[in-house]
Hints:
alpha/beta, 8-stranded mixed β-sheet
Amino acid sequence: MSMAEQQKAISILAADVGSVWTHACLIDCVEGVYRLIARAEEPTWHNAAPDALAGVVNAVRRIERIAQRALLDGTSEPITPEQDGRGVDAFVLCANAAPPLSCALVGLTADLSLPSAAHACAGAMVRVTHTVALGQRRAAEALAALAPLVAAPPEVIILTGGFDNGPTAPQQAAAEMLAAIFQATPVDRRPAVIYAGNQEARRPVAHALGVGWKLAVVDNVRPSEVTESPLELQRELAHVYDERQLANLPGMDVLQRWCAVPPVSTADALGVSLQYLARRNDLAGGVLGLDVGASTVGVFGVSEDSYEATVSADLGTATGLRGLLDRREPWRIAQWLPYAIDDNALTAALANTSLRPEGIPQTLNDLMLVQAAAREALRLAYGRWRDSRSATSGQAGYGLIAARGGSLAHSSQDGLAALVLLDALQPVGLARLVLDWGSLWPQLGALAAINPLAASQVLDRDSVRDLGTALCPAGVLRMGERALRLQLDRPGYGVQTVDVRFGDIIRLPLPADETATLKVWPHPHLDVGLGKPGLPAQARVQGGTLGVVVDVRGRPLQLAIDEDERLGCQQLWIEHLCTP
């Protein structure tokens, strides 16, 4: 599709091929404004294997039935351009159904270049299988440390080390050792190599590897002792993932032919939508984006001057449950449940879910078990994101927490989804909570490449569910002690005054289309986000389906050790957030 044709695209099909579910949506112009017409989701897996084409075709066929509009012809090819109300003008696609890249990190020092390379990998669809610090090892020791790469070759080797303008001999020696240990490996089975070290060593490294290697050179991830530069490496990893993993997904070759622009990864497309949300809301603290998926968990920090992302490719709420089970800490998941369950039963239930990822929770207890696992996966991913942030990143809180994922969007009550976020992240101060209710944000990010107006209008009008604003003080008091006095001033409704005890989480009604003035007088030992305990605060707050959520359970959140007391608290918190 030419640039001119892209700009004329009025009706669009967009799809997101996930590891378990494929989501598709139809967007069209209605009375001069782009709107969501219909959406659908279908399993990505068919005949015990992922099939991107089958997932998209089935989802689009469902949209045809919903919208009463023909979109595919008799051979299941898209009807383009739109003709007499049939078909669409363009199709766009994002995907993360392919497995992550297996990657080995080879560097000089364990305390500088290798951690920087690991930080870069955290922002890509990568699973690090080996980390080798060559350091001052003798040649024989270094070769022995690299030998496992031949026995189980990764798809990518990242070679790094040294500051820019420094000596080049160590990098050249490392490349010579890689060439030596893979000498007997057929060229087509050798890993790709990405060099992200001392830029002066580019030519020596390329010469040392010789022919028969696919080598890419990017900026040094650690150009100086105090500087970290991961973006070029992240971009190259994304390119390799698209080229090696996504392109080889069954059915992807046909879908690529349909696309108006090349497919992108789900994480990259989601990042576009999150950056738009940050600009649209003009938030001083920016946006904290969360993608709690079946096989991965992404955390994205978007502020005025930075964008920092991590993708945990070993965590999730379906196939990614293996990452939680391998940690052998079932109590961390069980602590979030409002009912008692022994470790063996919990492990068996989660293992069954990981083996049958396309299943849907049949009971409320099943849903709560998945959401308990989502808390733990999100807690771990959020911790990795904080650890991977650059040294220059600020520590300000985020004004908007924007979350997506089936375990949240398919929740039977918005209060349950809000509890997952509050428990896993434990935010402090004020933060708006919003959900991608229809799994639309990545598709809209992909759409922005050809029609940014359509993407922004649908994002504004049809994709965001406002849960409300959460107020979360930091500090710990005695259970039941008065923690806050609140006044909520709603224009036309007067002033509501409430005292909140420590250990409670409550709701104050405030519809999504309203704002109100919230005044807070905290206990002298509680900080409401101003950086000092006891300071009163006043702010304008946005409503939502839950209104204003006041979480005075303490930061850090400390769950009761006694099981009966803990279960009672969990049940009470759920009741307070889920009862109208």
